TrEMBL record:
Gene3D superfamilies, per database record: Tetratricopeptide repeat domain (1.25.40.10)
Keyword Membrane on entry: no
UniProt keyword terms in alphabetical order: Chloroplast, Plastid, TPR repeat
Name of the protein described by the UniProt record: Conserved hypothetical plastid protein
TPR repeat boundaries on the chain: 74-107, 108-141
InterPro entries: TPR-like_helical_dom_sf (IPR011990), TPR_rpt (IPR019734)
Pfam family, one: TPR_19
Record carries keyword Plastid: yes
């Protein structure tokens, strides 16, 4: 009777232990990736994660680098806005695109991205103002003319 009990217990616990080990491995792998990514290769690694559509890993790497450097870089903010856009976190995407615009107020590409996010956040007036600003900077911009 004891042998049957131990056999049943082992058959139940073995898969549970395996699943727990897999989850621990995945978690540690993500933490190691974030820990070892430093500023010199972080942009390259984030580009690789973007191609693989691993948005959250990319976000973790960039936010950690921003926290460690204690300075803002427009490249990081631009990529963060892009990543948050693709995971449908439009409020955060808007925030990061606005951070880029504080440093580069006449960047048409960022203005266009911010206008798209404003439209998704139901801020039509703000989007219209952005499109008007784009037209002031580039009178031949067909995308802004259509909006």
């Amino acid at each position: 009777m004891l042998k049957i009990y131990l056999l049943c217990l082992t058959c139940f616990l073995l898969p549970v232990c395996f699943l727990i080990t897999l989850e621990i491995y995945k978690t540690l792998k993500n933490h190691i990736v974030v820990y070892y990514s430093n500023n010199s290769n972080s942009l390259n690694s984030t580009q690789a994660y973007i191609r693989q559509k691993k948005w959250l890993t990319c976000i973790k790497i960039l936010e950690k680098n921003i926290a460690l450097q204690k300075k803002s870089t427009t490249k990081y903010y631009n990529i963060l806005g892009f990543c948050y856009y693709y995971i449908n976190e439009y409020q955060l995407s808007e925030y990061y695109y606005e951070q880029v615009l504080k440093q580069k107020p006449n960047n048409i590409s960022i203005l266009y991205k911010l206008a798209k996010v404003y439209l998704l956040n139901k801020k039509d007036k703000d989007a219209k103002n952005i499109y008007q600003k784009i037209l002031k900077l580039d009178k031949n911009n067909n995308i802004a003319k259509k909006k």
